[in-house]
Each structure stands twice: as C-alpha cells, then as structure tokens.
Please model this.
Amino acid sequence: MQLTAPARRTTDANGTDAKGTTRTARRTGIHDTDGMAVAAFVLGLLGLLVLNVFLGPIAIALASVALWRGTARRGRALLGLGLGVADLLVLAVFMSADNTMSWSL
Model:
C-alpha cells in the first residue's frame, strides 16, 4: 500500500514531458483512501465485539484520514467514524457498569 502519491512531472497537451517520454497520469491516492474507508468500517464494526479500546481509535483515525483525503467512499468512512465513536461509548458504558477497564459478555 502506497500512502503518498509519487511526484508528478509536468507534461504538455500530448502527455510528453521535458525529456520527451510519454507518461500517463495515475491517481494512486484515491485507491488508498477507499481502502482506508473500508478498513475503518470493518475495524469499527469488529470493535463493537472485541478490543474496542484499540480498534475504536484506529477506526476513527482511518476514517478521518480517508475523509480528509477525499475518498470516493464517503458514506463508508462516515460509518467507520461513527462505529469507532460507538466503540468508545460502549467501552465507557460497560466500564462504568462494572468498574473495570475490560468487559465481557
């Protein structure tokens, strides 16, 4: 997975750069952000069941980065963000119910 886009050369109208080579434009960043949005959703959903103290913040971070970079899967990223927050809320509710750092079903 590539997290940063490669440096782009300037090209003319025909797609030829200063050295005379033909290049095609690639959009690598959008694919990465789509993967982040899906990963945030999956981790947020999984975090409702297990390891919500770890998976909740990771889901929130991935969803925030995906939204900041302009993902095409905006709804999935928003769901991941919401599920990450729900993970932390579930943890807080269960922690206050039995006064421990962990909870079990």
Q: What stands out?
A: The two ends are 36 Å apart (CA to CA). The CA atoms of residues 49 and 87 lie 9 Å apart. Residues 74-98 form the longest helix (25 residues).
